[in-house]
Amino acid sequence: MGTFLRAVTDGVLEGGVYGLMAVGLTLIFGVLDIINIAQGIMVVLGAYLTYVLWTHLHIDQFVGLLITIPAMFILGVAVQYLFIRPLRGRERTSMSLLACYAVAIIIEGVLYQIFGSNYVSYTDYWTSPQATVEIGGYYLPYIYLFGFALAVLFVVLIYWMLYRTQFGRSIRATMQDHTAARLIGIDVNRVAALTFGIAVAVTAAGGMVYGTTTAFNPNTGYDLISRLLAIIVLGGMGSIGGALGAAVLMITVESLVDVYWNPQWSVVVFYAVLVLVLVFRPQGMFGRKEARAQ
Amino acid sequence: MKPAVLWRGGSLVALVAVAAAVPLLNNPLVTNVGVFVLMYVGSAVAWNIFSGFTGYISLGAAVFFGTGVYTTALLTEHLKLNGGAVFATYPLGGLAAAVIAVPFGLIALRVRRHTFVVVTIAFFFIFQLMAYDFSWTGGTLGILGPIVNWDPNTFYNPFYYTALIVAVGSAVLAWAIWGSRFGLQLRAIRDDEDRARGLGVKTMRVKLTAFVISAFPMGILGGLYFFLQGQALPEYAFNPFYDLTLALMSFLGGFGTLSGPIFGALLLEPYLGYAQYQVTNAYVAEVVLGALFLAVIIFLPRGILPTVGEKFTSWRVAWVRRSAGAQAAPAEPAGASPAADAVKTGAAGSGAPGGGSQR
Amino acid sequence: MRRPSARTALCAAFAIMAASAVAGCGGITATGSGNSGTLAGPTGKPITIGFSEPLTGAFQTDGEASLKGYQLWAADVNSHGGILGRPVKLVYLNNNSDPNTTTRTYTKLITQDHVDFVVGPFSTLLTKPAAQVAKQYHRAFVEGSGGGVSIYTLGYDNLFAVSAPVLDQLAPFANWVKSLTGPNRPKTAAYAMVSDPFADPPVQFAQGILQKAGITTVFNDANNAINGGAKPLSPAALTAAIKATAQQVAAKNPDVVLLGTVDVPSLATFINEFRALKFNPKMIIATSGPDQGQTFLSAVGNGNSTGIMVPDGWYGNFPDSLNHVMVQEYIAKYGGTAADINADVAESYSSGEVLADAITAVGLSQQKIITYLHSGVVLNTVQGLAQWGRGPGGVNLKSVNATSIFQWQNGGTRFVKVLPLGGDAVTIRPVKPAWVG
Fold first, then answer.
1. Chain C nearest CA to B306, separation (Å)
2. Does the beta-carbon distance from C276 to A214 stay under 8 Å?
3. Is the preceding omega at residue C420 within 30 degrees of 0, hence cis?
4. Are the Cβ atoms of B277 and C4 closer than 8 angstroms?
């Protein structure tokens, strides 16, 4: 396989996984109008949960999702109910950022206390040299393919929920106008809690794939949240398709820079692309103009 | 009013005097902790001049701090400076930071609040990675500072007094801005940016000016940090925790108030420093910190000082009423008019430090 | 509303200022007065040895291992009559893997806890500020875990390193390659490294030797090394960067590949990429990764480990009677086998040994100890013999037992010392077999 094709394949497959994590973040922003700065550490938490299930109970990470996804959903609903919902008034946006950050450092502290600062990586079938498929003279690990498939599956599910269910209509109505949604009888608080729960639940899947392909420690959350924020800003905040598109695009660009220029500059390029795009399109690539000015 | 002004001015002088006397304890450990506390006081106050007054939360302040670190480091290295001469480069560190703030601000301030946070994070990473990757920054090995053989007991004193001067200077600057027309414009942007623009505030120019002003003290402190640590390393010069700590300090004390960031820094930095020594529970300290913030958010949503101040006021008013009966005048009309209206009526200077419109 | 609010602020500020001063003076009490097992023999006022370790943060695991080394040493000394008949007491603090906290902890140990001696913490990054404080107070500073180049350029005359410097780690390998003749002698070499103070210098040092021997450099990324190793690059970005470098290396098809890696993931990424590209060099040596036993094997597959080499300054079965004692004690106390013991343990233990020997010889005076260690005296440690001399950049460790090179053999069933040749070294496998899958 040619170098170019290879870089693009890597970028798209990995981008899909980032897209999955970013969709949760952008959904929260769209519905609740807040930035969940804890999304990064929650991905790491999802990865650790999978790790614990594997090392202690020998539950395969794909099967483990049946446990970790509901667990993360409950965590999301709880965080929203306890710390986000009580916030009122003009400083709600700033305070919610701080509340999410406080939740993040609590999770981080707990993870450090339990697991220490060592990088953790799984060693099982999915990471073994056997779990690869040869495509065009190059071994591609299954986990990248299945991880991407999982990402696509979840994004399709979220789309189906948004556009084909009554609850999805409530979410979309809330995204468009909180007050109007409340007036037509939508329980905005319930929608907000469930959205937060769903957005956090998908981090379980994102964290599982991330953890299987990459070593991580509690500090990884900072790197993840920075990238995810860049992705959703680029995709137009609140736009789900935009987040997915931006994730695939950004990670592919990074992957191409690795190969054609120099790996050490790929992360700089990642953020420089963001800055450049915002110079010309402050609303992001896929965002509606001034869709959410504040 | 007069006794109050005297009381307030006297207290300020006393506070600075107490701070200035700390090195006289002749305890290098206390002075070292003091240097960092004052560095955070100065930084948090500077951060607040832009982020607190306008409501735009910046998580890219470390760009200014790191620029100061590397400016001083490179000057020291190439001019082969040593000892006191290094101190002379600090203003240049501040200047470099202010210069960097212009293009940074021009790009980042095109977007509104939420996106702004993200753009500042992006700038932060770009700068940190440049420090890692350019050959002239020394990469991961960084730049070594000059080695001085000062008396260990008073070693930190020059650093301490420099940090004190910067902290006091920043606080005075913040106070002057707060009461000025410029300060009112900033707060008008914070209250309602569209309305402020409608009232004729040149929002971009005003925001950019505050952004550049806030960068200057941080650059100076960056230079100080370089000499103090004896080396410039990318992960410590451009440190994400610097940004987060400044934001936490301001929120803890009272976001957008004059004294809030000072209070927050005086409270938080000694705690963080202390927590790090703990052998067994440094991570528990992190959890405690998170829990503390959640408690502040839920119970004192506007920060400790404003909420406590308000509680104190209502208690005092009740007390005055009770003791003096009906003839006691109300202390102040509660809740002064929003800053936006103050701009409209041109009532510059009505918002004195710690004034009623602080939030 | 205005007046009281300002007043509250100032009152509070006063209170906090006072509280922080108190915290600075006495609040930060010694948190980890070491259990040094003062049960046996020695009586009298203990000799206090102070240090801080990264017990939390990025270097947590190494910090814990380093601490165990000191504790093991102290227990050992105390069960053998102490130093000058006095027991040893460890006083240690946590520096949270942070340089400034390290400065504070050593300042506190010297000025407030009044420890008799200070010894080094884990890692070059933290050794530097600790050495600076020790220098300010004219203290002898023996350290085992600050092997980075920046320590040797400080030029401090009070600093005595007891472990082999990072720089010459790959020298035994380079010298061996230089000595090869016939078909086994490689013609081309590639040098790839992550940007890290422990990975780059030894690879570049070996490159110097090999180039002089006439081995052509076909790939060298010394000037734009992959950024990583330290905190900033995420593992994901580092992985991508290493993959790209590995592709460039494979394209040049060199005979020898020298990898400046920092851990198992960074090495496994190189190896797995080489496998994916079906690139089979004759020799692979990496600065870190193959020394991690089962973790390494799982990451690359047992069959693929054969022939891969790694330098190791110290190892559990190091043939030395002192070392044998330490290893037995470690196993008795913490379990496991000799192979499980982190080299950090031996580095701390050696620091303690050197300090104890010096005190025994000349007493408790800092200046006398500094002079003594400068005198050319040869001291025995669990890492071999140590001696100090004045080099161009200050005090350098002149001789310590040479670094050994280890190799995986027989499909991941044997990890053995192969270089330097002779002694307890096993026959080296000069050509690595092809990847097995």
1. 7
2. no
3. yes
4. no
The listed range with the strongest mean pLDDT (A231-245, C73-87, C389-403) is C73-87
Does residue B350 have a pLDDT over 60?
A: no
**Length of chain A in terms of residues written:** 294
Nearest CB to B290: which of A89, A109, A271?
A: A109
Q: What are phi and psi of C301, to 5 degrees?
A: 90, 135
Q: What is the DSSP string of A7-74?
A: HHHHHHHHHHHHHHHHHHHHHHHHHH----TTHHHHHHHHHHHHHHHHHHH---HHHHHHHHHHHHHH
Of residues A129, A145, A144, A125, the one with CA closest to residue A61: A125
CB count in 10 Å sphere of residue B328: 13
Structure tokens at C297: 């094997």
Pairing between strand A132-135 and A138-141? antiparallel
Contact assignment for C295 to A123 by CB distance below 8 Å: yes
What pairing do the DSSP bridges indicate for beta strands C159-161 and C141-143?
Answer: parallel
C242·A267 Cβ contact <8 A: no
Q: Decide the pairing of beta strands C283-286 and C256-260.
A: parallel
Residues 6+ apart with CB under 8 A from C183: none
Report pLDDT digits (tens) over C29-69. Answer: 334 444 444 444 677 889 999 999 998 887 888 888 899 99
ipTM of the complex as predicted: 0.81
Q: Closest Cα to residue C382, out of C337, C333, C315?
A: C315
The pLDDT of residue C397 is: 61
Give the whole-angstrom CA distance, residue B207 versus residue B191.
14
CA distances to B66, B169, C333, C338 from C76, rounded to whole Å, are 46, 56, 12, 18
Q: How far is A178 from chain B (nearest CA, A)?
A: 18
pLDDT in the model for residue A1: 53
- DSSP letters of C297-310? HHHH-GGGGTT-EE
Q: pLDDT tens digits for B113-133?
A: 878 888 898 899 889 888 887
Q: Which residues of A touch C237 (CB under 8 A)?
A: 223, 254, 266-267
Cβ of B8 within 8 Å of Cβ of C7? The answer is yes
Which residues of chain C have a CB within 8 Å of the CB of A123? 295, 298-299
Per-residue confidence (pLDDT) for residue A212, from 0 to 100: 84
Contact status of A29 with chain B (Cβ, < 8 Å)? yes
Contact assignment for B30 to C231 by CB distance below 8 Å: no
Neighboring chain B residues of C94 at a CB cutoff of 8 Å: 276-279, 282
Q: Which residues of chain C lie closer than 8 angstroms to A219, CB-CB?
A: 58, 231
pTM recorded for the entire structure = 0.80
Q: How many angstroms separate the CA atoms of B187 and B179, rounded?
A: 11
Distance of CA A221 to the CA centre of its chain: 11
A198-206: average pLDDT: 92
Residue B48 has pLDDT above 90, yes or no: yes
